[in-house]
Amino acid sequence: MLEDIQIKQYFERIGYCQAVYTNLETLSGLQWAHITHIPYENLDILASIPLSLKATNLFQKIIVRKRGGFCFELQGLYKELLESIGFHVVQYSARFMDKPGIVQMRRHRVLVIQIGNRRYLTDVGIRSESPRMPIELVYDTLQSDGVCEYRFRQDAFYGWVLCQKEYGKSWKPLYGFTEEPQIDDDFIMPCFYCEKHPDSTFNKFMKISIFSGESDFTLVNGIFQEYRNAKVQYRKRLTSQSEISDILKIYFGL
Question: Which of 6, 131, 134, 167 could in theory staple to 122 by disulfide, Cβ–Cβ 3.0 to 4.6 A?
């Protein structure tokens, strides 16, 4: 659990200054504040700096040193915050479904929050366009975060499948997960795979993103772009380290 002074630091880091209750309004506010202030990034992996999923180390990296992280880190620290302010959190492990016909390994950390008799998925650890607010865990119910529509479908293998519909596009699956609760240590092995395995893309090039308004800003493999209204609004290949450094500082706070 985080101490009161740490919770205060966390709120300052994400610019959250509202009253705190264990309700959907607070959960929604925290998720939005998180994804607009703390970037998704893999800079430590590229620099061969070993990752740690221990809460104390994540707090130092993300809150004190004002860095970001990828899903195992971001969702791990976010879980600590939610539990520390009284939310009931269950963790699951998900498979991304962005490669049609290919079953991918479980390499995403999912958080589900119980509020009364309802459950909500909350996610601050996805690099691309994804839910900007909690999505209720119910089948075939249309939900919107103001930018995209979402719904869950059921699959015999994937379990709960989160589907997304962007403006003017068809429905597509984002990821699926079954309901086997995970402990923190269950994420060490997939995290290490992403960090060190030769087939991993996380140790090959920058993967950085942050949300702002209706836009999703990304810097991936040397290409900086703004994604909004279901299409790329601006795209530029960065050709110098000074350009990259400026973008990291101006858009991602790194």
Answer: 134
What are 113's two structure tokens? 């929050």
CA–CA distance, 224 with 247 (Å, rounded to integer): 8
Q: What are phi and psi of 140, to 5 degrees?
A: 55, 40
Assess contact for 95 and 106: CB atoms under 8 A. yes
Residue type, 157: F
State both tokens at 218.
């990304």
User: What's the token pair of residue 55?
Assistant: 């809460």
Q: What is the pLDDT of residue 58?
A: 98
Does residue 183 sit in helix, strand or coil? coil
% of the chain exceeding 70 in pLDDT? 100
pLDDT tens sequence across 204-225: 999 999 999 999 999 999 999 9
- Asked whether the beta carbons of 16 and 28 are under 8 A apart, the reply is no
What letter would DSSP give residue 115? E
Which residues is 1 bridged to in the sheet? none
Nearest to 43 by CA among 225, 198, 219: 219
pLDDT for 104 equals 96
In our burial notation (b when 16+ CB lie closer than 10 A, e otherwise), range 98-122 reads eeeeeeeebbbbbbbbebeeebbbb
Q: What integer pLDDT is reported at residue 124 of this predicted model?
A: 98
| CA dist., res. 227 & res. 10, Å (int) | 27
The predicted pLDDT at position 194 comes to 97
Gap between the Cα atoms of 63 and 77, Å rounded: 9
φ and ψ at residue 10, rounded to 5 degrees? -60, -50
